[in-house]
Amino acid sequence: MKKIELYDTTLRDGAQAEEVNFSVEDKIRIALKLDELKIDYLEGGWPGSNPKDFQFFKEIKDYHLKHVRVVAFGSTHHPRKTPETDEIFQSLLQAKTEVVTIFGKSWTIHVKEALKTTLEHNLEIIENSVRYLKGHVSKVIYDAEHFFDGFKEDPEYALETLKRALKAGAECLCLCDTNGGTLPHEIREIIQRVKDVLGEKAPLGIHAHNDSECAVANSLEAVRLGAIQVQGTINGIGERCGNANLCSIIPNLVLKMGYDVSAKDVLFKLTEVSRYVFEIANLPHPARLPFVGRSAFAHKGGVHVSAVLKSPRTYEHLDPALVGNVRRVLVSELSGRSNILYKAKELGIELDTESALVNKIVEEIKKLEAEGYEFEAAEASLELLIYKLMGEPKQYFELLTYKVFDQKQLLDSSQAEATVLVRVPPGVGEVEHTAALGNGPVNALDNALRKALVRFYPQIREMELEDYKVRVLPGLPGTSSKVRVFILSKSKDKRWGTVGVSTDILEASCQALIDSYTYKLYLDKKKRS
Ligand SMILES: CC(=O)SCCNC(=O)CCNC(=O)[C@H](O)C(C)(C)COP(=O)(O)OP(=O)(O)OC[C@H]1O[C@@H](n2cnc3c(N)ncnc32)[C@H](O)[C@@H]1OP(=O)(O)O
Ligand SMILES: CC(=O)C(=O)O
Fold first, then answer.
1. Which residue from 88, 101, 258, 340 has the least number of CB within 10 angstroms?
2. Domain 398-528, what fold?
3. Substitution site in 8, 209, 218 for ligand 2 pocket (most atoms within 8 Å of beta carbon)
4. How far is CA 40 from CA 9, 65, 141, 206, 337, in A?
5. Ligand 2 touching residue 43 (CB < 6 A)
6. Which ligand is nearest to the CA of 144?
7. Looking at the record's lineage, which domain of life comes first (predicted)?
8. Helix crossing, 24-36 with 270-281: angle to 10°?
């Protein structure tokens, strides 16, 4: 089994992505997590770029990293300076890493127009820079920036840059598809021609960008052609459309192509690492990410669910547990009996496979979805609905009336007031009348409802609303449209989603709020019994 080195550049090229800005502390936490994933090389940043990157290299030394080797990144020395006089270049040594990566120019237009120097001088710059660094650190990786574009323009020159880096002692020649425009068949042709000149054993790497959506495919193809190192980022973040996504490359290399990478022993951590990095980056984790996304193994169509329950291989390319993910079954208008049976089992509800109740639930869900409800994310509303249809409704209070006054015209700041009449327990209990203010009508209604319930159920205080989304549904025109409200609630470490639909946004919010509070009370009751 051939060994492939994994090189992560989340903290450098990943940090070049729009909306990503890591603090030193963020970088340290990500570095430690990538060490757990047994990534071989971790590019920590460009020490000559800013004090934060420099500080990272200083602080990371205080940590005991078990596997990963930290790499400082920079460019070849400036054309009007030497390695000794170029301060930015010198900062690579001040980072005090054993491994340094520098990028140099392979494309003639970059030499002439960006560096404003001659082709021969660029070759000297590459050779001098690598040789100088080799005298100070144990390993130098040479990133051939724009290699594929450069090769298309002037193959001989692009190859000469590699020869110079190799001659000066670079341990890896990483071919970069910097503009991300290269397609897999071009990667194949060009790498083949590089090997024809440099030999089968040339120590090649690949660094692909995703502008043509081919970064993963290009990286895998490069490995198949002999590259020994793959560079990429967690979840593919990076400059413009991003870099090759290591969270897809790693399982493909291990599980599909049979390569040996250190991360193979801890592949089950992949989903955790992917979500952790985005949590730190403060980015929403895309559900549709292959392997690690929430939807990567989510089955919706009734035909799919029915078959997956018989044999998961029918609609799964691999066992989700291998990459630390989980199978999910969604309930929607596309569901059949199998979806409901699976979901009920997951929720701990025993349903008789043959019972007419299952058909009743399927029909009710299809009817509600046609009205605009969606239960895929609103699993708490779904669970309450199933109990209701089973004849075991979970009801701990009854909202008799509510009124909301929007006082925007009367006060300086935007404020609304709500009053509610709530009966606890439903049907027979005491009627509570409360009023509350809020920064908007929905907030006021929520505050009033909460105030009324807390007297009877103090545990409501533990609960908070984490997210509130309103979606206008197609059908009725303009402001007469129906809306769907989705609420995500949280209590301690438990989260649940609820849904409401109406032409009145307050009514839709109220339905979702009632389900949310009801679910909290149901959970507590279940825990106690
Ligand atoms: C393909 C990649 O992703 S490479 C990494 C890109 N990442 C970044 O640029 C982020 C970090 N960069 C920075 O903080 C800054 O650009 C610095 C500190 C490196 C340089 O800042 P400045 O000295 O102000 O230069 P500026 O950013 O305006 O321009 C880049 C300079 O690097 C030079 N340069 C570009 N590539 C190379 C190279 N391979 N070798 C030597 N010099 C290079 C450019 O010619 C330009 O020099 P000039 O100012 O004499 O024209
Ligand atoms: C080096 C690098 O980040 C690139 O060429 O894309």
1. 258
2. Double Stranded RNA Binding Domain (3.30.160)
3. 209
4. 11, 11, 13, 15, 47
5. no
6. 2
7. Bacteria
8. 180
Nearest ligand atom owner, CA of 177: 2
Q: Does the interface ipTM go beyond 0.90?
A: yes
Nearest CA residue ID for atom 25, ligand 1:
49
Q: Whose CA is closest to 508, among 487, 480, 477, 488?
A: 487
Residue in 9, 145, 162, 218 to alter for ligand 2 test, most ligand atoms within 8 A of Cβ: 145
Q: Tell me the pTM.
A: 0.85
Reading the block at residue 165, the tokens are: 């880096």
92, 48 in Cβ contact below 8 A? Answer: yes
Which superfamily does CATH assign the domain made up of 5-281 to?
Answer: Aldolase class I (3.20.20.70)
Mean pLDDT by 10 residues, the chain (529 residues): 96 97 96 98 97 97 98 98 98 98 98 98 98 98 98 98 98 98 98 98 98 98 98 98 98 98 97 94 93 96 95 98 95 90 90 92 93 91 96 96 80 80 93 93 95 96 92 78 93 93 96 98 92
What are the residue ranges spanned by the domains of the chain? 5-281, 298-369, 398-528
